[in-house]
Amino acid sequence: MNEVTVVDGEAGPQLDIVDGEGSARAVIWPGMGARLRSMHRISLGPGSRTVELRHPTDAVYYVIDGGGEARDHDAGAAEPLVTGSMVHVDRGTAYDLVAGDGGMEIVGGPSPADPALYPDEAG
Asked: Which of 19, 41, 80, 105 is the most exposed place for a label (fewest CB within 10 A)?
């Protein structure tokens, strides 16, 4: 079946991936029928970060607003992020996204979706 679905960015489940002030919510995810893609809206307050993440698939993120850095835990490296930056993370890489002093708004996620991000959801 082919269809176009417009989703409310507030309708998906909260994700427990933020350390500090902020939130993360699934926008596109398996529980709504998506099989090949996930997209999350992540809001990080000043100095907040995601928990360390590692997925069995690649992940891509786009910085909507603000800045900070993307940290590769395996390589011990960090890259700066500014509004308009895109981040690609190879599958299996341990990483986190850290907000700078002004916070950071991000959209993205692993593709295909990582089921471990939705432990309490059917999908």
From this structure: 80
